[in-house]
Each structure stands twice: as C-alpha cells, then as structure tokens.
Design a protein that fits this description.
The protein is about 0% helix and about 20% strand. With about 140 residues, the chain is mostly beta strands. The chain has a domain of about 100 residues. The strands form three sheets. A two-stranded antiparallel sheet has the order 1-2. The protein has a two-stranded antiparallel sheet with strand order 3-6. Strands 4-5 form a two-stranded antiparallel sheet. β1 and β2 form a beta hairpin. Bound molecules: FE2/S2 (inorganic) cluster (FES). The site of FE2/S2 (inorganic) cluster (FES) has 12 residues, from loops. Its cofactor is [2Fe-2S] cluster.
C-alpha cells in the first residue's frame, strides 16, 4: 500500500510502501490536550529493554506528535535521538559517527490496533507516546 504523508515542519511529502503503517498529514493531527494521562498508552515491553530507561532526551525534532496506526505484537523502534529521517521511527542514523550519539531507540509494542500519537519533541515522560510535554516547550 502506498501512503503519502507530510513529515514534520519541513512540509516534505514522503511516499512509503509499507503495509500496515498509516500516517497522516501533521496538520490534521488533533492533539491530546483533552485526554487524561491515564488515557496515554504504555509501552508493554519497556521493562524488558534497558534502553527504555535512558535518562537523557534527544534533540527536538518537532513540536507536535505524529499519529500512526500501530498493530499489536509488532516491534517498533521509536527514535529518541531526534536525528532519524523516518520520524518518529528509528532509521539507524544514531549510529553515524558524526552525530556522536549515545542514545538508543526505544523498542515498543502496543496492545491493540489503533491510531497512536508518538512523541516528536523527544521530551515525553511516557516514551514513545506523546504526553503533552511539547506544549511546554514553545
Ligand atoms: S510531541 Fe508531545 S510530548 Fe513530545
């Protein structure tokens, strides 16, 4: 399935051929301000991987989350460093020596198929999901 979406503030349209990943234009994202923090999903495998507890945050990629359709029992790797060109997911850029990056991506899964808001500011306390922290950064 070919999906076109706008990536971040750069107004760049990307075309990807990935089954089961649906992205929407960032201008269409409705933010989670009305949601309670208890409504924010949890990374069901965070306790398994030490990378989940890295204390540092990455650089700010964007000041709004990215909505993606995610599927259960599938591994995703959320970009923490903020350098990936495939935001909000990791593309391995953190390994390039010129970035001198020590941050690792956050491996995560979800419990049910749904649209999820993934953090793009990289400052969320509930990695990889947006917790509204981006609104305090502007
Ligand atoms: S984009 Fe909302 S907390 Fe990072």
């Amino acid at each position: 399935m070919n999906v076109n979406f706008m990536c971040g503030l750069r107004s760049t349209f990307w075309s990807i051929s990935r089954r089961k990943i649906d992205c929407v234009a960032s201008s269409q994202v409705s933010y989670i301000s009305a949601r309670n923090s208890s409504d924010i999903p949890k990374n069901t495998i965070a306790h398994i991987y030490s990378a989940s507890s890295q204390p540092e945050n990455g650089r700010i990629y964007d000041y709004k989350p990215f909505r993606m359709r995610l599927y259960p029992k599938k591994d995703y790797h959320w970009c923490l460093c903020g350098y990936s060109k495939s935001q909000p997911l990791c593309d391995g850029t953190h390994k390039l020596p010129q970035y001198k990056c020590t941050l690792k991506p956050i491996k995560f899964q979800v419990e049910e198929e749904d649209d999820y808001y993934l953090c793009n500011c990289k400052q969320t306390k509930l990695r990889p999901f947006c917790d509204g922290t981006h609104k305090t950064l502007l």
